[in-house]
Amino acid sequence: MAGWSVEDVPGQGGRVAVVTGANSGIGYVTARELARRGARVLLACRSEARGVGARDRLGGEVPGADVEFARLDLGDLASVREFARTYPYDRLDLLVNNAGVMALPYGTTADGFETQFGVNHLGHFALTGLLLPVLLAAPAARVVTVSSTAHVLANIDIDDLNSERRYRRWVAYARSKTANLLFVHELARRLAAHGADVIAAAAHPGYAATNLQTAGPEMAGRRAVQGLMRVGNRFFAQSAEAGALPTLYAATAPEVPPDSFTGPSLVGWRGSPAPSRRAPWTRDDRAAQRLWAASEQLTGVTYDALGA
Length: 308
Fold this sequence. Notes:
This is Oxidoreductase. Pfam families: adh_short. By secondary structure, the chain is an alpha/beta fold. It has one domain (12-206, 239-298): Rossmann fold. Helix content is 43%, strand content 14%. It is built from 10 helices and 8 strands. It has helices at 25-36, 48-61, 77-85, 115-136, 169-194, 212-220, 223-235, 240-243, 245-252, 285-299, and strands at residues 16-20, 40-45, 67-71, 94-97, 142-146, 199-203, 261-266, 270-275. Strands 3-2-1-4-5-6-7-8 form an 8-stranded mixed beta sheet, sandwiched between helices. Helix 3 packs parallel to helix 4, helix 4 (115-136) crosses helix 10 (285-299) and helix 6 packs antiparallel against helix 7. It is globular and about 50 Å long.
């Protein structure tokens, strides 16, 4: 793994990939490099204008790339179901659950969930479950979910998943990223129990310069914070190109184990991909099972193909 770079991404010819939030940042870089290695890539984005723009830009950067756009709003379960219903292929080799929001003012999704929990966790939980049959139809498929080192700031509160008692934007974000890791932990366990050869793994980009940092302050009208985030992105963050490497590693490297967590090697901030530290509560079997049951109840999506 030491020194692993984009040049080490193996050939992806014949593979089909879905990347959520692929119109910008590490999602775009991930989609582009998968396409460069020969994968057929579906860009799953909320905005049609930005998604089509990303598809066209990617086609210009990678001539001959097999890439398409499909609309997906993770904050609307009807949109998630429609995306899965109209998924155009009979197999899915790689699902990259990349899209996310960070430290937003309080809000709710179309289905009434707190936005960060609803988009970052529940939307991807539902998407993965609905696409499970085509994942199982592909040999050695993978599900890679993008979390964050910020998960260490807070464990989930199973009795207040939607932060109804008290909303603190960074705590809610951390809880959603912990939920990502608990989801991967339980999904990996269930896949193994079913005897499936699908690998569920997680990754994080460290501190990468994307629009994720500035979206929340912009929405809240916090111009000073927005300015600080821009300064941080410019002088301290690594590029989106570098930030995408842990995701690409988890998605394509041959030696990735189930329930692994890959991030940058230098104190989780920057550098080549390496195993990343994670809070002990993200490996709590009981918490993962309780979150799973709650997620099924909230979304109405059950993973029937994996049995009870």
